[in-house]
## 1
Amino acid sequence: MLRSLHISNFAIIKDIEMELGDGVTVFTGETGSGKSILVDALSLLAGKRGSIDLIRSGEDFFCVEGIFSINKSIVSLLSEFEVNDDNEDIIISRKMNKSGKSTCTVNGFFCSVKKLEEIGKKLFRFHEQFDNTDLLNSDFCKRIIDNFSVEIKVAWNEYSKIYSDWKTTKSKIEKLNKEEQEYQRKLDVLLWETQQIEDARICLEEDSKIAQKLSVLQNYERIQDGLQTVSNILSEENGIQDKLSVAEKEIARISKYDKDLDSTASELESIKFSIEEIINNIGNHLSLLDFSENELDELNQRDEVLKNLMRKFGPSLEDVLNYYEKALKEIDEIQKMFFDKESLLELLKKQNDVLSEKSKILYKLREKEGKKFCDLLVNSLKDMSIKAASMELRMILSQEPTAIGVDSMEFYFSANEGEPLKPMKDIASGGELSRISLAIEIITSNLWGKNTMIFDEIDTGISGKVAVEVASKLKMLSKNTQVLCITHLPQTASIADAHYRIEKFVENGRTLSVLKKLSHEEHLQDIAFMISGSDSSKSALDSAKEIEKVIKNSERRV
């Protein structure tokens, strides 16, 4: 509920402040006095975007601030937007300067206009004579019916949850279908690559061993000739071995005379033994050295296999084996994904079956609650002189799951006996739409929480008995919610729990719009002025009192 409102430097308003309470607050005044400006200011608190054109001429900025009593339906939203300071009130402030810089705060916290719009939906509902956007919106029909009873709320929540799961499953399958061809191609490549590696039966360091063997076989003659040459040099007659033997004997002979030569004799003996060992090793190596053309071919083939794998997946055999392990994991993941698709298809079928059943249950409940709602609405409209009103909820049950459980869901209406029912959006009469809108608000006022309803001249185009009935309905609505009415009708003004008159005057060459709270006597005078154009004639005042009396009697009947 809006408890107080402060507006400064806004259009022709210099500065006004008001306290508001429960029930009906009425705003009256001559055309152009600034009543619509009041609605513009309130709409800013509900998240509408501001404009520098709204800054009062000669001023640097405008400011609109409202204080609201908090209601349960908004607490979680305030916490979600991080603008809840645990107070019992909500303070919303909108400011804009001449450069176009706008600030929006909720409870002192900066808040985006988009978030404020969401908060505003929990605080305000606006109704104007030629603006019945909500009423003509197909989603509005669903919101009304699906909140009309606890039973249907539960059914809708169940359907909505399963539909959300179904949609997620369907999206996963569609994604898999879209990527399946690419994944299949990748799987085929990975399977072929891993088969190549498996067939190769790789051993670590095998490549270096093969390289060594190939080096020997490819250079067999060079190695053989070289070893033979070395062997000849070492062991031929009068060669190194023979000369070392002579040297050994000679050093042994002279060491008898010089003991310092003993170590030299030992070293020479050691060299002689080393040469003999080398000659033996070369001999053994030559005896083992063998050349096989088949072995060379096999090693060349094996070497090419390994080099080919290392070119693709290397550069080393260790890298090839690491790639193999990684590829196996990818294969497993892709195959699991294909398996998951089969599981998802089974899950989708089950979800589809459940949704089909739930949508039928929801359809029947909507049908039942829709009839109750339409009956209540028609009775309310008859009270407002649409005597031949008839209305029904029409739905088309979908063959496939939909977000709302049906293909379409719409109110059909006729105001005249014998005329076919037509979609609500095709109703041309603004007066009829306004009364339908008011009737809906009365019936559903307990569904939306205790917020503030703003009616901007929705009573335009009606008079007499219809005006009395509309005023009575507005008064009834105020029992569940705060009602703010801008009106030119004496019947609507007469239901006021608080009555403000908006007046426009010129001061120091500047036009000002001011707000005055009326006493009961001034309230009657204002109604009298609406009736006759005079607020002082006895007949006009008597008429004003009579209207109040008629309204009260009408309220009792309602």
## 2
Amino acid sequence: MEYILSREGGWDSVQDWMDVLSGGEKQRVAMARLFYHGPQFAILDECTSAVSMDVEGAIYTLCRQRNITLFTVSHRKSLWVHHEYYLHMDGRGNYQFKKIDENTFQFGS
């Protein structure tokens, strides 16, 4: 993401970063902060919705390598390969908590 520094005037530039960064750039910065702090657990709410699937895979692989336990809120079934369990809430007070395996019905997109 070095290009952002040159694009926006360097490290000392004062910007409204919410207006300057794209959605994917904001998500990458948020994940960089996660890796910097290295928590034991992280709750990720649609944290990769604006990045490509290869970047998404790299992010989740790095989280696993760094032993960060993830709770992910997402509609992307591509993320299931990075998790062992799912919690499905139906919006009416009911839920299912199950292990993900090759027979798991995958909802979402």
